[in-house]
Amino acid sequence: MTTDTQTRKSETPATSQYKPVDGLLLEVEDLRVEFHTEDGVAKAINGVNFDLHEGETLAILGESGSGKSVTAQAIMGILDMPPAVIPGGQIRYCGQDLLTMPEEQRRKTRGPEISMVFQDALSSLNPVFPVGWQIAEMFRKHRGMNKSDSLERAVKLMQRVQIPAAKERVKAYPHQFSGGMRQRIMIAMAIALDPAVLIADEPTTALDVTVQAQIMSLLQELQEERQMGLILITHDLGVVADVADKIAVMYAGRIVERADVFDLYRQPAHPYTKGLLESIPRLDQKGQQLAAIGGLPPNLMRIPAGCAFNPRCRYAQDICREERPELLTVAPGRESACHFAEEVLHG
Ligand code: SF4
């Protein structure tokens, strides 16, 4: 059976000059991002490393202010600079460093190579143009297609993201769709140019639980079908459990734990991850109070010395206030930045 996607892909000439080697799409190495403000320098990202392969889903998890969205924006190249400054690191896409690439060349990677779905579909869509027109614009602008062909492609994409009666609704405006349907339209726009990497930044936060699950399953389907590398940015472990292959947990601009999704859920190796897991409602603990992590994430202008998590950590000892723990392997495929990772893992 030929799917809409297969039809669309065959209609779209492969023009990418970027080719992954051994499936490796993205390498983020020692990335640092600061925000220079009148009040001081906020160190938003403090040496982040990860990679992403074709067909792989990486969830980046953390509370608000952990640096997960700034990481995504740095990869997309959409940080406001200034106040943002990138004092170090590399973001290599198919081996080429996006941070040193001429802006014109980099601009052309946004959409056809790396694309992004944002949290708030209503403010991301233009309220004065029909949704079909907005999707079709991607094809007109980037593929030089005429009006009727690009609209036809927009309808196919709307069908692919399961918008009911897509042919009729192609002329409808964003406010005429529900939140879930608007997010599907954003996804259609994000995948229109067959990106190799799709970043979804809290794509379901504004939606109810049932719609959240539908959107996550749509993203998973599209990712498998197109073998995209998918980065899911989330504060909610529960949302990404069924979708992600591996998880990087961020705190105060650093990755503090990295593991396959199954291992991390079964046995966290960092107190922060443990706290996040304990704060997820579980059916087998009905009626019991959830254990939220006490305290607040640090002010990024005054990150605590030693381990940034120490003021909130129930495992903290003197060494935690003095020495910053590095992200080290604690078991096969498991990394944790904690002086007591072994105890946490086996405790
Ligand atoms: Fe807690 Fe210390 Fe581990 Fe940091 S290093 S997470 S403070 S036990």
UniProtKB/TrEMBL annotation:
Taking every annotated instance into account, which residue ranges of this chain make up the domain ABC transporter? Answer: 26-277
Q: Name one Pfam family in it.
A: ABC_tran
- Which InterPro entries does the entry mention? AAA+_ATPase, ABC_Ni/Peptide_Import, ABC_transporter-like_ATP-bd, ABC_transporter-like_CS, Oligopep_ABC_C, P-loop_NTPase
Domain of life of the source: Bacteria
Q: List membrane-spanning regions.
A: none
Q: Name one GO biological process term.
A: peptide transport
Gene Ontology annotations for the cellular component aspect, listed alphabetically: plasma membrane
MF (Gene Ontology): ATP binding; ATP hydrolysis activity
Keywords on record: ATP-binding, Cell membrane, Membrane, Nucleotide-binding, Transport
Q: How does it sit in the membrane?
A: Peripheral membrane protein
The answer on whether this UniProt entry bears the keyword Electron transport reads no
| Location within or outside the cell | Cell membrane
The cross-references to SMART domains, in alphabetical order and at most eight, read: AAA
The record's comment on protein family reads: Belongs to the ABC transporter superfamily.
What is the name of the protein in this document?
A: ABC transporter ATP-binding protein
